[in-house]
């Protein structure tokens, strides 16, 4: 697994430079609660070089607005909607209530 | 001016196996827009795995995500935990994992095929496919000791060894299954009334499948060469046991049926090779280490690429475990697939996509 | 067309379904069934209790230190993890007997919750008693030294 650490505001730009739809396969977006910050991770695999997984990682505050990559990867809306519900973070244009109820309060995967 | 109607399908519907909700916007009979809701069965398994269960127990918990692909989840988790522990498992354990994964693929694909037949209105074929599927269920019970929850992979290897008489039984029963699958291929390929509901319905183009990152039989039916078994050789030796990628063109319901049917034959070949070339040796590698660092594992489940991410912090409990199920990746492609088809075809399209909502919502 | 003739032919064949209540279904010899414990061989290390994923095994402890094994077949998932972790072969084994369904009279869930509570309390009481004894012994030792 190749890990690329990025500042949060550079994420969309860098992924836009990296991602070619006929070359890379978007896997999923994941987030890990580190305690003081949340690390958001974007995973891609490669059709051309099989077995290679690239991870873009960026640190964010819980209240910060995280840019959406759906402009670059159209199918990422599912993963973004899931993270909004389970991790309780703000992602641009992502709707709430995809996995949990719309009026559910709290974020199950966060350490309090 | 066109009039649009919103028709809900689900969450409880006669053609659905699991709670899945669609809002189909139709113009006359044609579907023009789709909205999907998948989160009816969220059970918080990821949270439970990081708080309530030790990392060795998690491989049993994670199998309970789904009854159909339980072995895929257990194996993927065991592999990711072994990566965190820096543990190399014996070759015999790898071979036995492949054996159960492929048996599981046979029963999962046959379940899907039977439901495509049922949702296309061909009840007799549904009964027949389910009857033939019983052979693979019995084999799984003989190998794992249980019909649905196999609990076969554990961290460090596999739970049970394969007895010689069970190996012999698998070979003879698979010989029985072979002509039945040939018959099924014949029916699915040539039956006229089934072709009306399957051929050209729910098609997705190569470009769309690629752009929307589809995985599994759905992508392979559109000609996208995406199969994790083809990618990684370090965790499970797929190529050694004779894996071949199955590709079809067209991307419609019929092409997906054909991919699944032909994959049955590949799986049967792999199982025979595994049993004939099963190496001797231990089945479990022991270690006292604790999980540390982060790792990812990709594994080809019956429905497509399964992805596990785990992070350890040198305690008995994991810091984070993320499961990405194949159905989850296919939702964008799935929503696209409906558009332009008739409302009456929706059940067949849903079944051919083989949704597994327990995996998706976890 | 061929499928049609097969379907007609099937009308005259015997049913494919198993006559379940009257004939037994297929069950392998090494079916994963009930867990059995042998108190004569057990070394009371409680490793099975720690390994059990759903917590179907618990040991209670009497005041003289003697432990008793409790098992709930309705909580057990029959994974066999207890058998694999057991350091003494034969102390805990997996039989091929399927579990019988739990009946209402058994009150299996509520009584199990009580058993777990009782077991944990008995162990805590034993530990407290042991600590108290150790403390008095220590004290006694101190006083003898002082003298």
**Number of distinct helices of chain A:** 2
Q: Tell me the overall shape of chain A.
A: globular
Give the number of DSSP strands of chain A. Answer: 6
Globular, elongated, flat, extended or rod-shaped: what is the shape of chain B?
Answer: globular
Order of helices and strands of chain A: EHEEEEHE
Q: Briefly note the structural class of the backbone of chain B.
A: alpha+beta
- Terminal-residue CA separation of chain B: 43 Å
Major sheet size, sense and barrel closure of chain A: 4 strands, mixed
Please state the second-level CATH architecture of chain A.
2-Layer Sandwich
Largest interface: A-B, 33 and 36 residues
**Top-tier CATH class of chain A:** Alpha Beta
Based on helices, strands and strand pairing, what is the structural class of chain A?
A: alpha/beta
Q: Helix share of residues of chain A?
A: 10-25%
CATH homologous superfamily assignment of chain A: NADH:ubiquinone oxidoreductase Nqo5 subunit
Could you please describe the fold and organization of this structure?
The complex is a heterotrimer of chains A (112), B (362) and C (147). Chain A has 112 residues and is of the alpha/beta class. Chain A has one domain (2-91): 2-Layer Sandwich (Beta Polymerase, domain 2). Chain A contains 2 helices and 6 strands; from the N terminus they run βαββββαβ. Chain A has helices at residues 11-18, 77-87, and strands at 2-5, 24-33, 38-46, 53-60, 65-66, 90-91. Chain A has a 4-stranded mixed sheet with strand order 1-4-3-2. In chain A, a hairpin with a 4-residue loop joins β2 (24-33) and β3. In chain B, α4 (91-119) runs antiparallel to α13. Chain B is built from 14 helices and 8 strands. Chain B has a single domain (44-361), classed as Cytochrome-c3 Hydrogenase, chain B. In chain B, a hairpin with a 2-residue loop joins β2 (21-27) and β3. By secondary structure, chain B is an alpha+beta fold. Chain C has a domain at 21-100: Alpha-Beta Plaits. Chain C contains 4 helices and 4 strands, in the order αβαββαβα. Chain C has helices at 2-10, 47-51, 81-85, 108-146; strands at 35-37, 57-61, 67-71, 92-94. In chain C, the strands form 2 sheets. Chain C has a two-stranded antiparallel ribbon with strand order 1-4. Chain C has a two-stranded antiparallel sheet with strand order 2-3. The radius of gyration of chain C is 26 Å and the shape is elongated. The model of chain C has no long low-confidence stretch (mean pLDDT 80). Chains in contact: A-B, B-C. Chains A and B meet through β2, β3 and α2 of A and β6, β7, β8 and α12 of B.
